[in-house]
Fold each of these.
Amino acid sequence: MAVSSFSNSGIKSGSKRNKIWDQSAVENSFFSIATNTATGSTADVTFSSIPQTYTHLQLRMIVKNHTANTNNTRIQFNSDTGANYSWHELFGDGASAGSNASISASYMYLGNHPSNAVASAFAVYVVDILDYTNTNKFKTVKTLSGYDLNGSGVVGLRSGNWRSTSAISTIRIFPGADSFGQYSSFALYGIKG
Amino acid sequence: MPATNTYDAIQSYTLTSATNTVTFGSIPQTYTDLVLILNLGSTPSAQLTRLRFNGDTGTNYSDTKLRGNGTTAYSTRISNDSNATLNEFAYASTTLGKCNIIVNFMNYSNTTTYKTFLFRANNADLGTELGAGLWRSTAAISAIEVSNPGNNFLSGSTFSLYGIKAA
Amino acid sequence: MVKIQTVTVGVSGASSIDFTSIPQTYTDLKIVASLRSNRSAALGDTPALKFNGSSANFSNRYIFGQGSGTPTSGADADSGLGTMPGPNATASVFGSLEVYIPNYTSANNKSFSTESVMETNATANYMVMMANLWSQTAAITSISIFSQTSSTILQYSTATLYGIKKA
């Protein structure tokens, strides 16, 4: 391989793998808040008492079903189970591209996750919730998610809205049916803005 | 538990001459997810970009993609491949900087799961793609090889790896 | 990932959201924005960009979904970023927009990646994934976000600019 140049700032300040104060750095804005991992069949995952000190939230997840059924991943906020959600998706399933919607729903849909038929395969999600503490706005969620099982799978961009101006203090993530499979992992991050 | 500051720069490469393959080796196993940012050119012709993990040359890679070429939106699948292909038409062009690729590797150090990754590949002259890729291995990802099949990445192409650690 | 600046639109609305004197010390830029406009009698509006005061020399290819049916794909020679809700969307709903710009200080063309969604409690809705290009070699020193229809960006809209520095 031809010689590549490394960042000079990394060489000057030491190991590239360690954050070293260079006398000009400012505070990082991306913080891990909490993680939940399914240990067996897990009915749902809840993040509660979410700190109100960030501007945005991001969920990063790997998810599969506990049974031999493909299922979908859903989200609710602040224990609201009313028909106060809408969602839309734009997806590809390997054969065709499509879109779907649901309005006045009791949850927000984030994407599908696979069954336990391929034991070690999971769907992955990056879920962004902007301005989650803002009491002047309803809460909009943007999700990139998908999975592949070497012959099947789906990937898509999803959006959703919770029609409430309340600050988000609780997030519940749950499957459409069955339960989450072992090693499904749900990590919550706060982003300062 | 107090929140911990994360999203760390791990390694980066800026090519100083045309190069076929760039490898991130000895990736620290202390993070939860990795984010790979690529900004590429290709010579002598435009070309797709491939990944391999831990030197695995077996047919253990597959993906499902949503693609738009400026005329049609459609979806495709690759199965049992010996590489992960990030951009089937949002190629690295012969002009530097026109192609960018963002890859999220989730739970890359987990030794009980296969490795699924989400990627966005973009070239405004050619199209945009969203993919879910699978590496059928429960090994932790310790090396990522980024390659340009048959061609070379242009001098000036950049490859940056970041780590995100969950609480 | 470091916050550079946040802008919140006040009670009078804004013709644009501006980030000026952008530090040249990072590698990549990321914009996240929650926007709504007052485009007359419209479900959605199109946010757009200026780099260094100009909306010229932009192009894109995109995938567009409308909540039902087959998504479409198109290409434009402009700085559009997809979608944000307008007055005919459910009240108090703001969109979600993310733009990732690698190597914003480089002397090459600047390709970047965009996803934007709006929401409304109706089937018809807009979501867009884009490959964007600014065909200029200047470093990006300022960014403006505005309505492509010259509408007003409404109170409570926000945009944050982040810098990401490679290893």
Note: The longest strand of chain B covers residues 73-81.
Amino acid sequence: MAVKGHRRAAAAVAALALTAAALAACSGSTPDKGGGELAIAGYKDPSGNIQQILDAWNKAHPKAKAHYVDLPAASDQQHQLLSQNFLAKSSTYDVIIADDTWTDEFASKGWLTPLDSAGIPEDQMFPSVVNGGKYNGKLYTVPFTASAEFLYYRKDLVPHPPTTWSQLIADCKIAKANHMGCYAGQFAKYEGLTVNFNSAVASAGGRMMSPDGSKVEVNSPQALRGLKFLTNGFRQGYIPKAAITYQEQQGQQAFQQGKLMFLMNYSFVYQLANTPGPDTKVAGKFGIAPIPGLSGPGVVTTGGHMMGVSSYSKHRADAQAFVKFFTSEANARQLLTKLGYAPAWKTLYADTSLTKRYPYLSVIGQELQHAVVRPRSKNYVALSLVIQNNVYAALQGQKSPQGALSKISAQLKTTNAGK
Amino acid sequence: MTILQQATTPTTRAVVTPRRRRRRTPVWRHLLLAVQIAVILVYCLFPFYWMVVSSLRPANDIFNNSLVPSHVTLVNFEVLFGSQNNFAYALRNSVIIAGLATLIALAVATLAAYALARLRFRRKQLVLGLVVACSMFPGIALLTPLFQLFTQLGWINQYQAMVLPDISFALPLGIYTLSAFFSDLPWELEEAAKVDGATRAQAFRKVMLPLAAPGVFTTAVIIFVAAWNEFLIASAMSIDLASEPVTVAIAKFAGASEFQQPYGTQMAAGVIVTVPLIAVVLAMQRRIITGLTAGGLKS
Amino acid sequence: MATARRIRGTPSFWLLLPGLALLAAVIGYPIVRAIWLSLFTENSRGTSTDVFAGFDNYRRALFGTAAHDFWNSVGVTAFFAVTTVITEVVIGVLLAFMMHRAFRGRALVRASILVPWAIPTAVSAVLWQWMFQPDGVVNAIIGRQVLWTGSDWPSRFAIIIADTWKTAPFISLLVLAAMQSIPDEVYEAARVDGASIWQRVWQITLPLVKPALAVAVLFRVLDALRMYDLPAILTRGANGTTTVSLFAYQQAIDQGKFGYGSALSTLTFILVFLVGFGFVRILGARLAEAAGPVAP
């Protein structure tokens, strides 16, 4: 009797579970963004301008419509999600937006389709940016924006921007007199630190790897001078202590609050700092210039947002055509005027109407002539982590600069051995 | 006999509970209580207060540290529910996923907990060990095999791909919590009910469950919150607003540029997802108290 | 004794079946696959983890060149587990005692206790990260310029504060529910017998909430040993806050080393198991003895 009672209870639960499962075996409705066969996966664009470009494509290609799928905002989460999908050979995403540093990894694993036959006019784009999308000589990803940091300086305090590090350090006494921090970039332990370190090394005439990417060359006297510019900053005080927590946004805040005289950052700061309002004290009081280096103008790290086609996509031909469309010069102009994205197209930097409207355009254009990329590796994430760990320790004074460089060099060699 | 059993066994001794004269509680008792309450409220609510205040600040004032905002605006909430983020869809998904997970997990855990707390069988230790072992593996290691399995089953971007893992993550805690509550109940009442002719299931439902109500509702709240807050599995299993819960939607919020955190929208989302939970718990609270008084302790 | 024979098997089997089946399918299967995967390493292209490697991944984790990082993360995890759980239990029990007394507005105070825990981790981690900025509100209130995410001990304290704030309510909730299961008559009887407040707490309340508290502590310890969200978002693992889960995540997901990452996860599992084993023994024994007379 008791046994039957329990059997009945178990049966009831099973029935409940099945009903619930049936209810769950579906999903809800979505706000209609016009489904289409092509899924473009990338970070969310709240302004709706990227959607406008998609709309233009959809109008011209009603049989191969594209819709946008939002990925998480943090780039390491994007990387994780894309990797999971590729590993499972999922055809969910046709076109992906990726960082340039992921190209080697994705291409070497066969996750991306080569785009050489898509007719992308590479020669019209800056080589340093386009090369970020190449692996083993083939083109896998195409840039639709080029990123490059430059120097923001308080022109009301320093009429002429410094062109070398020693000039910058000399100018710091003005900052001290005004009770401000002198210089900051991005020094928290994240990808931005790798960018800053890469730029510092290059600006001192050093480099992380040999040009063909086979040898690790970071343990050099030039690289040491580059790293010392940063570590001395913390030790001697021309980089404020709080800067060890700075990502891009914190530096922007500090500069806008008048707490910083020199800031190395991206173009997004320009509009924000220059629009009068309660959150900025420096509107109209700052200028921009290429970053300084050891003995002359500095070398900046460039990278960009790249577009690639998934090997597991079911519409590869259409996807390739889409990539060509999205990265065209017309759309690059659109992205510049609507979103402030610096383009990868050389021609746009020669357009005086644009350079007049966007003062930072000519600065970025100058820098892109001889910019460098971050070291290429199939294990870029591991490589970046090595750099971050050791440089961060050096900035905190827990490791000597030379010690940090030796460690980086040794660990990079082991990481690269897996090439 | 445990104290509980002692207390609920009718004694022949006449227990005299004299109506004592009202001792006026001293002032310092009131003050102490007030201070305690103040401490609790500040500890629990200050970060939440900061979240609410930040959600009401306009974008260009968001880094202001003053405790009371000078400009109050609802623009962050407009952006949250507007066409940029369509947060209402994510809310709907979260309610469905967490609700289903809670109901099913509670039912399953109640059965298992009853067996563990009430019945005697061999290998009980083994079962307990297996159950808790499931809570010991880092979640991220489970992600990839599950994702690949669900991809093959075609379950990606559907509710069950999240409901099932949520249930399974909640089960060990649910089973253990309910076992602990069930094992504390006086069994004499169930025996008495059976002597009166009830089956074991009826005895459980009519006598024990009301007594265990605080534990059951507490477990329900714990499971619901855990499912509501789950992010890792959901971020892999959902693609868009057809099925993504609030945690994933929040992770996708973007600022005006790629370097800017959308603090205002995130804080507004934090307020929106917390307030209903509080309301649900407030409602549950009544049940927890009435569950006690409705139980059969008045012998 | 015929009763004992009848009990063994059917009723408990059916009652346990749904739960165990679900756990086996959704958690058991991935665990087995993960442990299996830990015996392999990636092929040269890195596209799949199918090169048999025996215990190489484990050797690498425990004794290899990067073992230093692994053992570091174990130490960090143990530190966080001990500090956060102790702090949470103390605060949680105190909160439960404060909430247990009847006073006006008690429901509202109880609801506010749950606020920290109800906020999704994603949001609260961002909130704390923002509050802990050098020019954030925490520094504004305490009036000092502490680099919360910029140096070792402040970073650890930041994580402990953020984690404890969120989880002490969880403990207080369980303890409170247990306290409210104790009928007032018990206290009355004790008071009539002349017990002081302290004796009532010590001899009635605490023993009777022990089962619920033990469950809470067990699962909090298990959670703390697998802590991932907070260090990932608040400090990104910097300044000695890389827990084992974060370390395994970085290896497996970020760097595609699934075999090695699975080995790290399995090692984490073994560590956590060793810790949880003691708890389960105590709890299991209690449950077995508390299941009173069991005629079907």
Note: Residues 390 and 404 of chain A are 5 Å apart (CA to CA).
